[in-house]
Hints:
alpha+beta; 4-stranded mixed β-sheet
Amino acid sequence: MDATQHDADERFRAEIRGWLEENLAGRFAALRGRGGSGREHEDFEARLEWNRHMAAAGWTCVAWPVEHGGRGLSIAQQVIFHEEYARADAPARVNHLGEELLGPTLIAHGTPEQRARFLPGIVAVEELWCQGYSEPGAGSDLAAVSTKAHRVGDEWSISGQKVWTSLAQHADWCFVIARTEPGSTRHHGLSYLLVPMAQPGVEVRPILQLTATSEFNEVFFDDARTDADLVVGGEGNGFKVAMATLGFERGVSTLAQQIAFRRELDAVIDTATRTGAIDDAVLRDRLVRARMELEVIRQHALRTLGGEQGDGASVTKLLWSNWHRSLGELAMDVSGPASLLVGPDYALDDLQTLFLFSRADTIYGGSDEIQRNVIAERVLGLPREARP
Length: 388
């Protein structure tokens, strides 16, 4: 990096840091640290207002090209944005699925009409999205989805069930993987449909989680309808487009996730100091190892930025999900007997929430088993696993 670019990046860092300091005040001051995995129920409407406040100031979709409503930031500046946002303890944004997943997918694979229709609503945080991938009989194996869609005049009719659908209770739209070719199997005959949620053919049922919250949902489609032209990437190309979306999911924004992980690790270390667990040589060694492993994950993410995420994104998912689950277990060990106690009405503390929610990390977003198969077969070129 030359000196000129370095100076420009540092000016950008000062700009976003200053904006966050000035704006995370007044009615938004209480939102610091609110939301996130296992805590999406916290101040949702206020966080939505914050997200729209960011949009009005031009701080949403910062990685998108300028012609699509973004800022066209470089990879280095995207890293800076996410780092500063996390360091400011700013609230979890409510528009992640639209901004980080669907938007880039439409830019890469959508038609001009689809981009014109949906991108402005994502930038302005006026339309929220959810992701219709997993199913009860498919899980992380997207090629096994059974939700079906067929043409009825100038519409698609969609029927089937999705599960583990994050924030579906708040979403206006869902991007759905459905089988549009009768008799097709595996990754053939799938299409990527954009489906409105506010219609009689869509039912959302919350799933009660171990944390006593319900950010995951079941979604039932019973002759749900969407326009015939709302197929991204063309009919039958749904698997390819879905894989592209997953690649975007595991991109630059994971760096902000790692800063949040560092704060959680610091909280675990503080607890170990308070409880005296820090004097236990085995627990102290595990804390040191956790810090080292988190730095390895960060360096891996930095090394892979700027290239095609592709199937290599599976490595990133495998690394962070196992690390985070282990951190939850370590949090309970350093807390000692107090980790088994909850307050009135099942009031969990932050470390208990970390432990319980992180049990799902190695399952959602692609299970460990699926990620290892992807790495073995598509990254390392090993022989495919025998399949029935």
